[in-house]
Design a protein that fits this description.
Elements (H helix, E strand, L loop, with lengths): L2 H11 L6 E2 H8 L3 H9 L6 E2 L5 E3 L1 H15 L4 H26 L9
Antiparallel strand pairs: 1-3, 2-3
Helix pairs in contact: 4-5
Length: about 110
């Protein structure tokens, strides 16, 4: 296989590869480009830019945007939805770190 072809196939499996244009991302999520721009303004997702300056989204970013849309559809203001998702992500990361520490025999220090 040609190296460039191999790289393109690898990109298809990469959750962080910015494969989707704003229009395609909005279509896939059933939302508008304005909604995606608002998520960027609230710093929930930061799309990469193509050489021409167009926003490009990854599959991971689309999952985050879909979660935001779910919250907004339930009546949560977009600012609050973005904050909730950021806090959920931080909690998940903290839990993952705690599990790793426990697996390696580290015990939490008792509180004073």
């Amino acid at each position: 296989m040609h190296p460039a072809t191999s790289r393109r196939v690898d990109n298809l499996d990469d959750d962080d590869y910015p494969a989707y244009t704003m229009g395609r991302a909005a279509e896939m999520l059933g939302t508008t480009p304005a909604f995606l721009r608002a998520l960027g303004e609230h710093r929930l997702i930061t799309p990469l830019r193509s050489e021409g300056g167009h926003r490009r989204y990854s599959r991971y970013q689309l999952r985050v945007a879909a979660r935001a849309r779910e919250l907004v559809d339930q009546g949560t203001p977009i600012e609050a939805a973005c904050r909730i998702i950021i806090l959920e992500d931080q909690l998940e990361e903290a839990q993952r770190i705690n599990e790793e520490l426990r697996a390696h025999g580290h015990q939490p220090k008792p509180s004073a």
